Amino acid sequence: METPTRDELIAENALLRERLALLEAEVEMLRSMLSGGGNGSSAVPFVKPNRKERRESQRTQRKSRRKSFARKRDIPTEVVKHVVDVCPDCGRKVIEIPQTRIRIIEHVLIARHCGVCGKRLVPKLELSGQVVGKSRFGIELMSLIAEMATSWRMPHRTIRRALKTVWGLQVSLGQISEVLHRVAARGKLAYAELLWDIRGSPVVNADETGWREDGVNGYIWSFSTPDVRYLLRDGSRASKVVTQTLGDEFEGVLVSDFYGAYNAYGGVKQRCWVHLLRDLRALAEKHPDNESVARWVGRVRSIYQRAREVAGGNYSQLERCRLRQFFESRMLKLANMYRDAENAPQRVLAKRIESFLGDLFTFVDRDGVPSDNNAAERAVRPAVIARKVSGGTRSPKGSDTRMTLMSLFGTWTLNGQDPMRACQAMLAAQA
Predict the structure, then answer these.
(1) What are the φ/ψ torsions at residue 81 (nearest 5 degrees)?
(2) How is the chain split into domains, by residue range?
(3) Other Cβ atoms within 10 Å of 164 Cβ, number
(4) Exposure string (b/e) for 145-161, b if CB count within 10 Å is 16 or more?
(5) Per-residue pLDDT tens digits for 94-108
């Protein structure tokens, strides 16, 4: 063992002196506390413990366990969910939809042998009313897809995403197209019956709009009644479509706009007054400072308003016929005022009134004939919206499917039926 040097001993002595001074100070403090803080009392003063600091110190000093000793939960065999149906404050009910998953049903046929005769017995599988043909999709699912594509105007990709999100069903775009083709094929008979209903109706509204097929321009023709909507797609906008669709069986009144293709029908016609009034308003707005234009437009409108009152009034058939002749004579006088005036702004509409004079007041002396073509406009409106969403179809088969489904679903909706339930009933009957 080495002997410390003199300097080391001096330093150690100084350190011990410092520690001794600290110990003496602590002893003096303890004496003061035992004597009551120097106030003559020998009682130890009360110091309130800080429980928060003690808990924090215990929490920091607690050792972490490697493994929890909590009791494990048993695997549940069923789950009971508890929800609040009625708000306790306002009493309003909480509305929620059930979260259901798709059902995939497998049918297993079990064959057995008779112990007496040894005959092999196989049960007969009866799925009529549930599936169509050998399709893997049931009637309810096929009807839902058809309504999504037709009434809701959802694209195929949106339908696929909705089926996967809501019901957990994974389908391809090709499967959705095939379902629509199958539903349309099963509805061909009902689609043909709609055409016969059109031909047997006393009044038919007709209209047309554009529809592209595989990038080629074409047209959708709409023929509708208060109970039927019939749509077809044709590449032509000529009058042959009107004559072929109505055929020789139709003997009613054809309500349409002023398009020349409807002139091919040789029966009674009614031209749309809404189109004429729209052009009259545009003429008045184009020449706001021309008093003769405003006066002429006002006289045409007043004759139409008077004709509407007669059509809705309590007049005999003979009186209606005479009033119709009166309105036509008044309208012809207005047309002759500017028919041959080269520079008159009213010349174009005056010539139109003269050309279609016999088709303007059919609604006056015939019951059930509207003065406008709004029914055809409403019938073709869903097709216009579908065209804006999808841009058209890609093949003739796709066009036929779309026209069939839009006609059937439009007719069911027009008659107040649930389109999905009506489609299910049609598929079940065809199955």
Answers:
(1) -95, 135
(2) 203-270+374-417, 273-365
(3) 13
(4) bbbbbbbebbebeebbe
(5) 677 777 777 777 778
| The CATH fold of domain 203-270+374-417 | Nucleotidyltransferase; domain 5 (3.30.420)
Give the tokens for residue 94: 């909480």
Q: How far apart are CA 277 and CA 371, in angstroms?
A: 11
**What pLDDT was estimated at residue 133?**
72
Q: Which phi and psi angles does 222 have, rounded to 5°? A: -115, 125
CB atoms within 10 A of CB 384: 13
∠ CA 390-396-398 to the nearest 5 degrees?
45
Judge whether residue 43 has pLDDT over 60. no
Question: Once rounded to an integer, what is the mean pLDDT over residues 196-224?
Answer: 95
C-alpha distances (whole Å) from 3 to each of 9, 156, 326, 382 are 10, 98, 146, 111
Residues 291-310: pLDDT tens digits?
999 999 999 999 999 999 99
- State how far the Cα of 333 lies from the Cα of 354, in Å rounded to an integer: 9
d(C-alpha 283, C-alpha 411), whole Å: 37
**Strongest mean pLDDT among 31-35, 163-167, 276-280:** 276-280
Rounded CA separation 274/65 (Å): 85
DSSP string, 347-398: HHHHHHHHHTGGGTSHHHHSTT--SS-HHHHHHHHHHHHHHHHH-SBSSHHH
CA distance 4 to 75: 74
The strand pairing partners of 112, in sequence order, are 121
Contact 249, 267 (CB under 8 A): no
Whether residue 284 is predicted with pLDDT greater than 80 in this model: the reply is yes
Q: Where are the alpha helices (DSSP H) in 287-346?
A: 291-311, 317-338
The CA dihedral of 165, 166, 170, 174, to the nearest 10 degrees, is: -100
Strand partners, 412: none
Q: Confirm if 271 and 360 have CB atoms less than 8 A apart.
A: yes
- The residue behind tokens 């909590």 is 70
The closest of 95, 96, 125 to 108, measured between CA atoms, is: 125
Closest C-alpha among 252, 254, 250, 296 to residue 271: 254
Closest CA to 338 of 348, 327, 325: 348
Tokens of 212: 């592209």
